[in-house]
Amino acid sequence: MPNNEEFSLEDGKMLIQFARDNIEFFLTNNRKIPVPDAIKQKFSDKYGAFVTLNKYDVFGNPLRGCIGYIEPTYSLYDVIHRVSLSSAIEDPRFPSVSLDEMDKIIIELSILTPPKLLEVNNPKEYLDKIVIGRDGLIVEKGMRRGLLLPQVPVDHGRNWDVETFLSHTCSKAWLESNAWKEKNTKIYSFQAILFEEKEPRGEVIRKYLT
Q1: Is CATH 3.30.700.20 the classification given to domain 9-113+192-207?
Q2: What is the model's pLDDT at position 60?
Q3: Whole-angstrom Cα distance, residue 200 to residue 209?
Q4: What is the 3-state secondary structure (H, E, C) of the chain?
């Protein structure tokens, strides 16, 4: 499970550089970059992770692509190898990123803890169990599932409370916004360690939400 000691800033720099190199290599050569041995050896443990691409210096919602794996099914290097490229060319919400466009994109990496089911007797208890800036959410009902990362309710000028966060996560699952109040809806929380470029190809920082 990620914690403050498990991934250093230097680790974040290596992983974000690996993600950028993979995207730009593919856009140039139409194939993934071979995974360096140093990356394989250092990041072989299994984690869920998301790679997010944001347009640099854009007001409002700068999202350009975001794909990830929730569960710790694959080695971290393998997840980043897969989803960095998917976020650039396979996010169904956007056209594929171009090589020139990568000059105007910043990369963000979220390394996830395993999701934990929140057990409540009354849905109102979610409002006390969920902490904005700490928790990401998964809403699940039947075959529908939606996820929002911990940074979503606080990034880009948003100032959501917990109920707003729950409502938006329900909408992400293509459910009614108040579906979190229904007994057959499951809510999971998770946390994330975040790294982000300050500018395209620029300094990588550890990102704190609170």
Answers
A1: yes
A2: 65
A3: 21
A4: CCCCCCCCHHHHHHHHHHHHHHHHHHHHHCCCCCCCHHHHHHCCCECEEEEEEEECCCCCCCEEEEEEECCCCCEHHHHHHHHHHHHHHCCCCCCCCCCHHHHHEEEEEEEECCCEECCCCCHHHHHHHCCCCCCEEEEEECCEEEEECCCCCCHHHCCCCHHHHHHHHHHHCCCCCCHHHCCCCEEEEECEEEEEECCCCCCEEEECCC
Q: What angle do CA 37, 40, 45 make, to 5 degrees?
A: 160
Could you tell me the residue ranges of all domains in the chain? 9-113+192-207, 116-190
Topology of domain 116-190 in CATH is Dna Ligase; domain 1 (3.30.1490)
Q: What is the pLDDT of residue 5?
A: 59
Half-sphere exposure of 12 (CA within 13 A, CB side): 25
Block means of pLDDT (10 residues each) for the chain, 210 residues, are 72 97 96 95 96 86 91 95 97 95 96 95 95 95 94 87 96 96 95 95 88
Predicted pLDDT of residue 37: 96
Identical fold for domains 9-113+192-207 and 116-190, yes or no, is no
The pLDDT value recorded for residue 155 is: 84
Amino acid in position 16: I
